[in-house]
Design brief:
The complex is a heterodimer of chains A (343) and B (470). By secondary structure, chain A is α/β, with parallel strands linked by helices. Chain A is 41% helix and 10% strand. Chain A has a single domain, classed as Thiamin diphosphate (ThDP)-binding fold, Pyr/PP domains (Rossmann fold). Chain A has eleven helices and eight strands. The longest helix of chain A has 26 residues, at 28-53. Chain A is globular, with a radius of gyration of 20 Å. Helix content of chain B is 30%, strand content 22%. Chain B contains 14 helices and 22 strands. Chain B has a seven-stranded mixed sheet with strand order 11-10-12-13-15-14-20, sandwiched between helices. Classes of the chains: A alpha/beta (343), B alpha/beta (470).
Chain lengths: 343, 470
């Protein structure tokens, strides 16, 4: 074989992406907002990784580093009452929905003030108040649930939509297509966001998917789709705006394939031997979502180096506070074992 | 040569039907494919087609006749130029007689006195009062009672709750335009419209998940599985999404949803369509599991289930759908979840069952009475949370217990009851608990094997005597 990289040659040829050119620039305020939000997720996740290494966080821990632009860009078009639901790679979504980093981190450490009182952990957190419906550990299971949240919106005559996130791995689950069928049949206001980070755990998209263009996965159901540069928060926001408008107008669901990349392994215990260090390095250097915004902030003179340093310090302080809280909060009372099973 | 036209079965569980009307008259020429008559049950109306050519020589059962047993000759078709005199010698009739003879023979054999699908159902309404069924304790004295099938009771429960609360809706396969595969949702589409009575594609996994998502958003879905056999497709959503989310969210999330439909063996539909999921679902914390027997309990418990803030598995039984019981005429009749019922008081031995197992249990109790044994029969009604107290109190009195269920024995409901009695009433036991359950095999198709695979009255009677050392 000519190519001696760490993975087998792809059995399916991946198509070149086709991105929309309709990407309006951000204002200064938008750039700064996106920068702060993405940086909070990045720093939070870095700390979570560190705490995992120290044994303060147990079980599975899936980090969102590299994918920050997706949830950040989408939340820029979300309206009051819209819902968000996603998989187990969910810390970024929670922060983007406005959940308190201290309570999220305390859940990661399994403490009593955690978002789920320490009973859910990394993969299972919820906030009705912020419209975040989890945090689901079974690959693809959130897709029918998100479709049901959208069903409820339509049933009640609300204009809200549900952003239902899942990965390229989940995109091969049968229940996803059962959901697509009902969503289009009943014109449910749901935006399906496929976060294609190129690997379903250790299996690359080309090794697991007969059709690697996930934006076309709704074609059998007449659901329109769009491929998006998921590393560019402006492109994400623009596509999300188009999808949200489509849904709110009563046209039914839409699929957004966000092409992205996770820098870390699938979970903390994944050494990521299935890809080369060079591949990761190239993505970090050339496509990092936060660096893109940072470069624009400086180039457009929206912020100085000093301003950005101040923001970095501010974000680090929020994360440090969360770590401090999550390390000192007591474990749940043993009596909590028996509560919240039934109402 | 003449041919008998027999009353056809419309479904695996149909035993009787109404011959609504004849579309042909005596003397008419008929050919294969002609529609001879219309018949109906409480589930559906269907047409009887001629299979043979000839003349409709004689109508044996007039139009409008009720309760015509399946396989009864209803007319005679004579080949051209023949009379209708020799009806008893046709091959079809001979076959029917042969099956009947087999049944009679088996009935004489004490080793195989299993109840047949035909004698399992209760007699029609007028005779049902003879069964010793204590009225539900939830009914105030002096309440007017009306005779109602389990099917009608379930429909009324849903309709009442849908009138009461706009957030209640029903979804499932064939629930709307078809009026329900088993006609449980008959008339609901007409009253509530397609927004609230939703036909789904055949995609149990995702429509169960969709219902759970809608429940998380605060609606109160009733998800009908055409039968619980198909709920296996949705098991992950029911267990991982519905049952666990409240706990995993530290009590923040709620999932007020009812999954309902027929559970357990129907008749002659073999292994994949004849399974009792009582033990499966009752294993899972975060679910409530209900399995009613009477129409009153079906109604009162379904209404309670719809109002419950937790996910509820509501296990019905296809054979019981057509059974008639007395149901209290009350504006808002609720039966509390988690409470068993003494269906028959007795001193000598406790028989615990639920759902269609109650048919066996009550018949066994009647046989035992004839032999001088006074059995107490408990209808659990709810399997989770299980009413341990009612069992323990009874066992303290009788010192003996037999459990009855159609499901498999290993890790079954009877196993659970047995363990609870050991934990909470061991000192009161005068004999080991005996479990009567479905046999530890996939359900066979052949009529005789199916009969053997299900619990039977003889085994219950023998078990009751054994624990009494008689």
């Amino acid at each position: 074989m000519a190519n001696s990289s760490t993975t087998d040659a792809p059995s399916v040829q991946e198509e070149a992406p086709h991105y929309s050119q309709d990407v309006p620039p951000f204002t200064k305020e938008e750039e700064l907002l996106a920068y702060r939000k993405m940086l909070l997720i990045r720093r939070f996740e870095e700390k979570a990784g560190q705490l995992y290494g120290m044994g303060l966080i147990g079980g599975f821990c899936h980090l969102y580093i590299g994918q920050e632009a997706i949830v950040t860009g989408i939340m820029m078009v979300a309206q009051e009452g819209d819902q968000t639901i996603t998989s187990y790679r969910d810390h970024g979504h929670m922060l983007a929905c406005g959940m308190d980093p201290s309570f999220v981190m305390a859940e990661l450490t399994g403490r009593r003030s955690g978002q789920s009182k320490g009973k859910g952990g990394s993969m299972h957190m919820f906030s009705k108040e912020k419209g975040f419906f989890g945090g689901h550990g079974i690959v693809g299971a959130q897709v029918p649930l998100g479709t049901g949240l959208a069903f409820a919106n339509l049933y009640r005559g609300q204009q809200n939509i549900c952003f239902t996130y899942f990965g390229d791995g989940a995109a091969n689950q049968g229940q996803v297509y059962e959901s697509f069928n009902m969503a289009e049949l009943w014109k449910l206001p749901v935006v399906y966001v496929v976060e294609n980070n190129r690997y379903a755990m250790g299996t690359s998209v080309s090794r697991s998917s007969a059709l690697t263009d996930f934006s076309k996965r709704g074609q059998s159901f007449n659901i329109p789709g769009e491929q998006v540069d998921g590393m560019d928060v402006r492109a994400v926001r623009a596509a999300a705006g188009r999808a949200a408008a489509w849904c709110r107008a009563g046209n039914g669901p839409m699929i957004l394939e966000m092409q992205t990349y996770r820098y870390r392994g699938h979970s903390m215990s994944d050494p990521a031997k299935y890809r080369s260090k060079e591949e990761v390095q190239k993505m970090r250097e050339e496509h990092d979502p936060i660096e893109q915004v940072r470069a624009r902030l400086l180039a457009n003179e929206y912020a100085s180096e000093a301003d950005l340093k101040a923001i970095d310090a501010e974000i680090r302080a929020i994360v440090s506070k969360a770590v401090d809280f999550a390390s000192h909060d007591p474990e749940p009372d043993p009596a909590e074992l028996w509560t919240d099973v039934l109402q | 040569m003449t041919t008998n036209v027999l009353m056809p079965a419309l479904s695996p569980t149909m035993e009787h039907g109404k011959l609504t009307k004849w579309l042909k008259s005596e003397g008419d020429a008929v050919k294969s494919g002609d529609i001879l008559a219309e018949i109906e049950t409480d589930k559906a109306t269907m047409e009887v087609e001629a299979v043979d050519e000839g003349t409709l020589a004689k109508i044996l059962v007039p139009g409008g006749a009720e309760n015509v047993a399946v396989n009864t000759p209803i007319a005679i078709i004579a080949a051209a130029g023949e009379s209708a005199s020799a009806e008893a010698s046709t091959p079809e009739t001979a076959a029917v007689q042969k099956i009947a003879a087999l049944d009679a023979k088996e009935g004489e054999d004490p080793q195989s006195d299993a109840i047949t699908a035909a004698d399992a159902p209760l007699p029609p309404a007028d005779a049902s009062g003879k069964m010793e069924i204590a009225p539900a304790t939830e009914v105030p004295a002096g309440t007017e009672m009306v005779a109602m099938t389990v099917r009608e009771a379930l429909r009324e429960a849903m309709a009442e709750e849908m009138r009461r609360d706009d957030s209640v809706f029903i979804m499932g396969e064939e629930v709307a335009e078809y009026q329900g595969a088993y006609k449980i949702t008959q008339g609901l589409l007409e009253e509530f419209g397609e927004r609230r009575v939703v036909d789904t594609p055949i995609t149990e996994h995702a429509f169960a998940g969709l219902g759970i998502g809608a429940a998380m958003a605060g609606l109160r879905p009733i998800v009908e599985f055409m039968t619980f056999n198909f709920a296996m497709q949705a098991m992950d959503q029911i267990i991982n999404s519905a049952a666990k989310t409240r706990y995993m969210s530290g009590g923040q999330m709620s999932c007020p949803i009812v999954f309902r439909g027929p559970n357990g063996a129907a008749a002659r539909v073999a292994a994949q369509h004849s399974q009792d999921y009582s033990a499966w679902f009752s294993h899972v914390p975060g679910l409530k599991v209900i399995a009613p027997y009477t129409a009153a309990d079906a109604k009162g418990l379904l209404k309670s289930a719809i109002r419950d803030p937790n996910p509820v598995i509501f296990l019905e039984n296809e054979i019981l759908y057509g059974h008639t019981f007395e149901v209290p005429k009350l504006d808002d009749f609720l039966v509390p979840i988690g409470k068993g019922r003494i269906a028959r008081e007795g001193r000598d031995v406790t028989i615990v069952s639920f759902s269609i197992g109650m048919v066996y249990a009550l018949k066994a109790a009647a046989e035992l009475e004839a032999e001088g044994v006074d059995a107490e029969v408990i209808d659990l009604r709810t399997l989770r949370p299980m009413d341990s107290a009612i069992i323990v109190e009874s066992v303290k009195k009788t010192g003996r217990c037999v459990t009855v269920e159609e499901g498999w024995p290993q890790s079954g409901v009877g196993a659970e009851i047995s363990a609870r009695i050991m934990e909470d009433a061991f000192d009161y036991l005068d004999a080991p608990v005996v479990r009567i359950a479905g046999k530890d095999v996939p359900m066979p198709y052949a009529a005789n094997l199916e009969k053997l695979a299900l619990p039977n009255i003889g085994d219950i009677v023998a078990a009751a005597k054994a624990v009494l050392y008689r």
